[in-house]
Fold these 2 entries.
Entry 1:
Amino acid sequence: MRKILIVDDHVDIRRLIRMTLEFESYEIFEAEDGATALLLAEAVRPDLVLLDVMMPGELDGLDVCRQLKSDPMLLNPRVIMLSARGQAQDCSAGQQAGADAYLVKPFSPLQLIDVIGQQWEHA
Amino acid sequence: MIAIAIDTPSGAARSFDDAAAAQMERIVTDLGRVYQERNEALREVARAHHEALLRLSLAADMRDDDTGVHITRIGHLAEALALALGESKDFARELRLAAPMHDIGKIGVPDAVLLKPGKLTNDEWVEMRKHPDIGFNMIQPIPFLSVPATIVLSHQERWDGQGYPRKLKHHEIHIGARIFAVADTLDAMTSDRPYRKGTTFSNAVAEITRCGGSQFDPEVVKAFNSIGEVGLIRIKEDMMARRKAREASQMTPSHGLPAVAPLPDPDPDKNKN
């Protein structure tokens, strides 16, 4: 079963994303900040990480993305950035950090499912 | 915080912040879309299912009736009778959709018997009377067709037990088949045949009324009379008008089969749950 790590400081958002993805039979993990996300990622080696851009704490989503992508322990997980801001600079910042896709919150669950599906095609 | 609150299992209401509330709205929007698409897909499947059955039924029916009108007409009559008897709309519609199939077993009856202009010999009658069983065996394995299959099997049964193939009596005969027997007879009597003219509605109604309690379920005959001759003629005219409208609005099917009365959308009320 493919593993997905959800990183968002909002517990409700994490839960809503989990509910959205439960139909697709993924194994879901949750982290509430960047540092926890990196620790958890090393432990479970997710196939894909859904990553909020704006998080409290030392690391924001872009930092986490860069580290996820460069950590050799982690078999290059796919990263989908989630951001409340829909600005072009956010999207390109995400791209520069190595994200594979970018969704604006609130996102359409159907679109999220599609975008995740596309990641497996590219893998 | 905004004013979206739900009751949790503990009984305490709790609120969601803007981000969560906005996300939930998107989920609900998607849910609505999926729901609509699902209903549309189900309607399409139902339509395709009925259309396929109708075309197959026509193939059988057109051997002895080159118009295909008969099987459409008795469906409408059967539907009206079911409603007059107080049956549900769903059931009445199911009867209408079953109508085209009632004689589908005739596909297994040899031309020499089915198309014979004169009287049938005893052996030929034996052949002819196999058609309900042949039809039942054809239809019965198809999902959703248990009522139509029952009607196919028992539409030649008589209230007094003198019908075929099982000699079922009274309420042993499915209500759909009891209704059907009346609709089928009315239409057969009032339709022209190569060897005779159809009789008038008044004659047919009198004959059916006379046979209530012997050939037909008296309750069905009562309902039949409550529709009245004027009502029956209107049903027939409505059906023909709808048929014409459909023929006008559609190109003639290239396969050469006659156009038939439009298939209904499944009851929209049914999709509300």
Entry 2:
Amino acid sequence: MNCDEVRRKLSEHADAEALRHVRDCESCADAIVVDALTQRPKPVASAGFAARIQSELPSSPRAQSWPRAGVSAAIGLLVLIAIAVMITGSLTIHNRLLFGWLVILLGVELAALMLWLGRATRM
Amino acid sequence: MKLSWEKKVYQELASAEQEQFARTVEEHQGLVFRTLARLVGRTYRLDDLAQEVFLRLWRGLPHFRGEAQTKTYLYRIIVNVAKDEWKRRKRAEIELPLDDPGGGWENRLHSADPNAADVLALATLKSEVDAALNELSSNERNALVLYHQEELSYQEVADALGVPINTVRTYLHRGRERLRQAIRERMGEARDELR
């Protein structure tokens, strides 16, 4: 039994011989998989779905551009950084090397925070 | 007086935006529902998940960069919502039944119907592919659905998933291989039943 014959047979009904062929044939198994994947399901949205979404929308998205999630964490991080800078700054102000490292560390932390916030506001 | 006029204008603008957005929802709801249906494996809560997709789209509008990316942007949100749903299910340890509420082919093969083998048609094999799809990693499942079902290009799938094109190719290759393996194993079981 060749591949075309098996696929035609399977489109009507299956028998042990066709199944045996598909189990042993990479190409037929792949054809069934791709065929199944390309078929689009057709779930139906409930009636008035768009109207319901519209009624539940918050105010204009422009007023919502600042993400709620992550803001409190960002503020918390900034406060922590400020405290750390005050404490370590007072300890290292007379040591130029340590103070330099502190400034670099602070810069890296702020850059990471900005990157993270930028990512959080994407979606 | 001036403030109330400004407020009125703002409300009108917001209302116009909402009406325009409702049209966007109508235009894209089919895409959202069918993609979600495939990615989350079954249809319960589909309305809630689709609603979450559109609310995220609404919130993300200020950061949206142009009409050309509408679908990719929407697919990215759908993928994220589906991922969150899978995480929720994992936390809740929800068992997923097969898509076919009437049962899989095993049940039918054991039926008293003498022609039981005939109902094991290609349609049933395809529903087995859907069941096997749920067992893949979310990255593989997302890539397969976006590429095959939604007919996105490699680049569009990469953009939607936020990964390089070569990673998409790997997901597709590995995902299809695992689906083939799963379907062949299930066919082996069914063939034994048919003997």
